Predict the 3D structure of the following.
Amino acid sequence: MTEPPARTPDRASDRARPRDRIRAAFAEAGVTGWLHAVDIDSGAQIDLDADRSVVTASVHKLCLLVALHQHAETGRLELTDQTECPPQGRTAGPTGLSAMLDPARLSLRDAAYLMMAVSDNTAADLLLERVGIDAVNDTTARLGLTRTHAVQTFRGFLATIREDAGHGGPQALADPQVLARLRALDPARTNRSTPRDMTRLLGAIWRDEACTPEHSAAVRRLLGLQVWPHRLASGFPFDDVHVAGKTGSAPTLRNEVGVIEYPDHGRYAVAVFTRAASPAATLPAADAVIGTAARIAVDALRGSGAAPVRGA
């Protein structure tokens, strides 16, 4: 009997499968998601609406961190400079200086640690006072992040949520009509970026292009000290795989950007932004799908060689 001819691999189909699995994972978790993942060294990539403008929320603290270190490397400030933080007028938040009650004095680099490790809003705004929003935007522009822009402080971001929620307070955020009017959920009216811009920034940090090698290493260290394991890191529960990232949250929004490093020196920048259908503050599946989607993308990149993998 004549053997049938060998089946030619359908590369387009193979490349589509990871995106289909990511879409299915987002749908099962009850979220809409946007993703970009790239092999930092080969350039192979996977995207799912990666050029969609998204609300960054606390992910924008990474842009501020890079701007801070660029100021330090040019001598405009010293990272050991001290800053005073009185208890009055602190930016709201559940962590770090935002949750503390007494006067504090700390260095800029320690404020940066709090900003990145526990997403401390007060620490972020202390640093933003030193660096300035214009400098943050200059930094992202110089790095080619053409869709990334900061328009307000973190205090200002939270203030718009309170103002737009009205007299109903936090409970009003369960109302879809209230959510629809929140400026904080509209990328055109708040700090914004795209998944592709964020992985470009991460790649520049890991290749020592965003700052000098010394300052890039300091930025990478702080990203590696983030304490939250329930989003990006949940997809890589291995002792020998290192995850460094920065989360961002707002009503219905859960985001994280970061880099996954394997013991074989593979390193992959991933940005995942999601919006949940439910306004509930606690949605474990919506948090976990960020890790799931990142894992699907990175596994595909690790099996794709250097061939770029792209799609809408």
Notes: The longest strand covers residues 267-276.
